[in-house]
Design a protein that fits this description.
By secondary structure, the protein is of the alpha+beta class. Helix content is about 35%, strand content about 30%.
Length: about 160
C-alpha cells in the first residue's frame, strides 16, 4: 500500500548558519555598537540577550530575516516564551525551535483528515504522522488537504512510497 510521512523537521546546520549571520550583523551594525547583544543556540533553544526591549525586537527581526535567507521557514521559531530580566539591565529571551509535530497538532490533523472523508488512514508515530491509502491519488489529495489547512507549523511530506 502506498504511504507517506508528515514530519516537521528543521535543518540545524542551516539554523547555525543563520545565527552566524545574525551575530555578524550585530557586530557590524551602528545601532548595536557598544551593546551586549548576543545570540546562542543550545539544542532546540536559541537564547537572545539584549540591552533593552527595542534591541531585543530588532534581534528577533534579524533572526526571522536570516532564517528566511537560509531557506529555513521562520515559523519554526516559537517566540511565545516570556522575556525575562538578566544580569545588569539586560533582557533574555529563550526562543524555541519547533521540532516534530506536537501531540495536540497531530490529533487535530488526524481528525481533520478523517472528517474530510478521504480514503486514507492516518497513524500517529511519535512526533510524525504516517498516511496510507490504496491509491496514490488518494495520498496526493491528503497532501493537498493538509497543505490547505493553513497550520502555524511548517510541515514536510517525505518518504512517499508506492
Amino acid at each position: 500500500m502506498p504511504s507517506f510521512d508528515i514530519v516537521s523537521k528543521t535543518e540545524m546546520a542551516e539554523v547555525d548558519n543563520a545565527l552566524a549571520g545574525v551575530r555578524r550583523e550585530i557586530e557590524q551594525r551602528y545601532d548595536f555598537k557598544g551593546s551586549k547583544c548576543s545570540v546562542e543556540r543550545a539544542e532546540n533553544d536559541v537564547t537572545v540577550l539584549a540591552d533593552d526591549q527595542p534591541k531585543l525586537d530588532t534581534v528577533h527581526e534579524l533572526l526571522r530575516v536570516h532564517m528566511t535567507r537560509r531557506k529555513v521557514d521562520a515559523n519554526f521559531l516559537d517566540f511565545e516564551a516570556k522575556v525575562e530580566r538578566a544580569a545588569g539591565d539586560t533582557v533574555r529571551h529563550v526562543v524555541k525551535i519547533r521540532q516534530g509535530i506536537a501531540q495536540d497538532l497531530a490529533k487535530k490533523i488526524v481528525k481533520a483528515i478523517k472528517d474530510s472523508k478521504l480514503k486514507v488512514q492516518v497513524a500517529i508515530q511519535g512526533d510524525e504522522l504516517r498516511v496510507t491509502g490504496k491509491k496514490r491519488d488518494d495520498l496526493q489529495e491528503a497532501i493537498a488537504y493538509v497543505r490547505g489547512m493553513k497550520l502555524e507549523q511548517p510541515l514536510q511530506y517525505v518518504n512517499f512510497r508506492d
